[in-house]
Design brief:
It is a single chain. The protein has one domain (24-106): Outer Surface Protein A, domain 3 (Alpha-Beta Complex), CATH 3.90.930. 50% of the residues lie in helices and 17% in strands. It is built from 4 helices and 5 strands. It has helices at 3-17, 54-66, 69-79, 84-100; strands spanning 24-25, 30-35, 38-43, 49-51, 105-106. The strands form 2 sheets. The chain has a 3-stranded antiparallel β-sheet with strand order 2-3-4, covered by helices on one side. A hairpin with a 5-residue loop joins strand 3 and strand 4. Helix 1 (3-17) packs across helix 4 (84-100), helix 2 crosses helix 3 (69-79) and helix 3 packs across helix 4 (84-100). It is globular, with a radius of gyration of 14 Å.
Length: 112
């Protein structure tokens, strides 16, 4: 099994756990840097970094704002000309990858 096949398998497994009713949060160990409209994320706990393209950046910002994936989905459907099925797939794939790398956690979100 190649590295990419392993990641794809993990994403499929995580998608089974993730639903549009899931809530996610960004750990305190994540530093975010804006690089001319695209984001660079650094996980200080693991040393892993990732650069987000414009779509990933938009999803990240909506996750920061809403936490609830169903609200993120609604915002994306309002902003982009995409089918709901495609948007759900893309959002769950993005969140699964972010979970795998430790940039996002699932669970209750504290509100102040």
């Amino acid at each position: 099994m190649t590295w990419q096949e392993g990641i794809d398998t993990l994403i499929r497994l995580m998608k089974g756990v993730l639903t549009m009713a899931s809530q996610v949060r960004i750990p305190d160990s994540i530093a975010v840097h804006d690089l001319q409209g695209e984001l660079l994320l650094l996980n200080s706990a693991t040393g892993v970094s990732v650069s987000l393209d414009p779509m990933g950046t938009r999803m990240w910002l909506l996750i920061q704002e809403h936490h609830a994936l169903d609200k993120v989905l609604d915002a994306l459907l309002h902003e982009y000309d995409v089918t709901e099925a495609q948007c759900v797939h893309d959002l769950l794939s993005f969140v699964a990858r972010m979970l795998e790398e430790g940039f996002i956690e699932t669970g209750d979100v504290e509100t102040s």
